[in-house]
Amino acid sequence: MQAETDRYMVWPGQALSYKIGQLEILKLRQYAKDELKEKFSLRAFHDEVLGAGALPLDVLSRRIHAWVAQQKSVAD
């Protein structure tokens, strides 16, 4: 625990960037839930978020929006 506390004291931006990423992923998850309704799968969402590895948040957002559109077209 001490090492983690020390790391955040030295690199405060790291904690901030983790939080910003978390909030963006939660926002994208809510978007997907709202759009897909009962067809939303948390497992499939996680696969899509993690599938391409580390991505800039704007690229991840485009990827999730495209995935939602694809899921909607498959469902129709």
Give a structural overview.
The chain is an all-alpha fold. The chain has one domain (2-75). The chain has four helices and no strands. It has helices at 2-10, 12-36, 42-51, 57-75. The longest helix has 25 residues, at 12-36. The relative contact order is 0.12. The model has no long low-confidence stretch (mean pLDDT 93).
Low-confidence stretches: none
Q: What portion of residues is helical?
A: over 70%
N-to-C SSE series? HHHH
* Count of runs of 4 or more consecutive helical residues: 4
The biggest sheet, with number of strands, parallel, antiparallel or mixed sense and barrel status, is:
none
Residues in β-strands, percent = under 5%
Q: What is the average of the pLDDT values?
A: 93
Q: C-alpha Rg, in Å?
A: 15 Å
Number of domains: 1
Determine the oligomeric state from the structure: single chain
Give the overall shape. elongated
Q: What is the CA-CA span between the terminal residues?
A: 49 Å
Instruction: Label the structural class.
Output: mainly alpha
Number of strands: 0
Descriptors for this entry?
single chain, 76 residues, mainly alpha, elongated
Summarize this structure briefly.
The protein is mainly α and 76 residues long.
Topology:
Layout: H1 2-10, H2 12-36, H3 42-51, H4 57-75
Helix pairs in contact: 1-2, 2-4
